Amino acid sequence: MKQRTYRICIALVAIALAFALLLGLAFANVIIPVIAVVVGIAILALCRRRVTEVTEDELSTILHGKAALGALEITILVAAIGFAALMSFSSGGGSGWGLATYDNGSTKVYYGVLSISPILSVSPLDLNYESYSLYEGSYLIPDPANLTFDDVVALDAMFAEGHRIRDTARAFGAALGMVTVLLAVLYGAFLWYYNRKYGA
Q1: Contact 4, 13 (CB under 8 A)
Q2: How far apart are CA 79 and CA 63, in angstroms?
Q3: In the chain, where are the structural domains located?
Q4: From residue 197, how far is each of 128, 179, 190, 191, 200 by CA, in Å?
Q5: Residue-wise pLDDT tens for the chain (200 aa)?
């Protein structure tokens, strides 16, 4: 495998990882990105071992170091922004529920989750907040005095779906925050190690 093919492999793995992250957010499943990262690392390791066109010199070492540092800085920046955005998304807004009764004795239960987002009015310093619905659910209980097992399951699913939206965003935000801290700590540790080793 040539270096150009290896770079194409890296780009394809990066695109696949971004797609896996979006899928994980869409389906509220943290396992999807984790599996994608493990598979991506394995694929990159396999591709790296198959590279036959090896040209290592001082210039390529410097270029690899600059590329790695640039990737690290951008990753830390994007992860920090993602952490802030997801945590503010998961903590802003609120939730509410209500009941509506009907003449035939049935009752409808409503549950909704709201979020707020800042919007600019006239100037960057003049912020207003607009609320919008993240989730709206309802369930009709035909006979509230005699709840069935299906009624309980349906009510539980309705409330769980509303909570899942915020919990998923909070989990991904916490994960990005931990990745940011871990990368910064690892960078500092390796910088200290190489400074000690080479006496810089």
Answers
A1: no
A2: 24
A3: 1-54, 92-170
A4: 54, 26, 10, 10, 8
A5: 677 787 888 888 888 888 887 787 777 677 877 788 888 888 888 887 887 765 556 666 777 777 777 778 888 888 888 787 777 777 766 677 888 888 888 999 988 877 665 554 444 455 555 666 777 888 999 988 888 899 889 988 888 887 777 777 777 788 888 888 888 888 888 878 878 887 65
